[in-house]
Amino acid sequence: MSFDILHDGPDIITATPQELAQYTDMAFSLRLKRFGRELYCYGPTSYPHNIPSHTQRNRHNFISLSVTGTACSLQCEHCKGRLLSGMEPVLTPEDMLRRLEQVKDSGGEGALISGGSDSAGHVPLRRFGEVLRTAKDSLGLTIVVHTGLVDVETAQVLADAGIDAAMFDVIGDEEVAREIYHLRNGSTQMERTLRILSDAGVPIVPHIMVGLYWGQLRGEIEALAMVSRYSPAAIVVIVLSPLRHTPMEGLPPPSPSAVGRVLTVARLGLPDRPLLLGCARPLGQHKIETDQLAVRAGVNGIAYISEEGVETARRAGLKPVFKDVCCSLAYRHMT
Asked: Among 107, 222, 265, 308, whose CB has the most other CB atoms within 10 angstroms?
């Protein structure tokens, strides 16, 4: 079928339940035809994930490191740096190398490298280039990086290091980027990051947050259209989870139905690309319902999946495959 994200996507967002069911049936059928029956269930060990169907076996298998500790100058409205508190600080190249050697010695597979941004949206990654290359070449680890916005020089550092994936947020609305991320021309800069990393040969895994604009849908469809102009290794959809001690505390997150609709647009609009429901999303019943809708929308993988999500996948004829690594690596598992 012919599907244009900008033209046809809004119809899915506003579809009646009966109309939506037809779209999700098409998306799921397309997923089966293009990718088969495996559903990859990811559980990087920076957070525990133990459900009846799967238990993590090595807490050092895939960790999260922050090159700035908890410091972040950008102070986005939805985060205020709080998401960095769940990562281990590695403030120098020596600290990073030491921790990555421990991962290797513990039988681990790799790490996510992240960090806070400066006021222009850049994570200070360049001075860690040699360590990243050592992690790849000498330690044989898998390395994925939250990059923030990048310039040509940083992209080349990451390319020379041979990282396995570059992850960064994509926002399809300039006002959302300005109001929430405090970035002027933020969407334009994000597209430039897509282009620079692609040109450098770095596998790109853009993240699109549903409900970033104070819990409302705004710019998600445009972000998917932007991503579709490149060749992402995978696309990760995440969901606003209003955090305590941020301006969004107490806001209702976007509904599971809204998330399922965006995922359906993504599946139909990017039929040949791995599509993931990422780790950042509300917990509890919201998570259960979102997981179930994600399966029906044709995702290829889910991070920290609920047992109910696993059961839904099995009832749909899918085969859950568990990996205790970052979901950005789905493109490697599907080749």
From this structure: 265
Q: Domain locations in the chain?
A: 5-333
**Residue 107: Cβ within 10 Å count:** 10
Residues in a beta bridge with 239: 210
Token pair of 133, please? 């290359």
pLDDT of residue 2: 86
Q: How many CB atoms lie within 10 A of CB 29?
A: 11
Query: What's the rounded Cα separation, in Å, for the pair 260 and 283?
Result: 16
Cα(136)–Cα(154) distance, integer angstroms = 17
Contact 209, 169 (CB under 8 A): yes
| Secondary structure in 3-state letters for 66-133 | ECCCCCCCCCCCCCCCHHHHHCEECCCHHHHHHHHHHHHHCCCCEEEEECCCCCCCECCCHHHHHHHH
CATH of 5-333, picked from 3.40.640.10, 3.20.20.450, 3.20.20.70, 3.40.50.300, is: 3.20.20.70
The Cα-based distances of 265 to 187, 199, 213 in angstroms read 20, 26, 19
Q: What is the pLDDT of residues 215-235, one digit of tens each?
A: 999 999 999 999 999 999 999
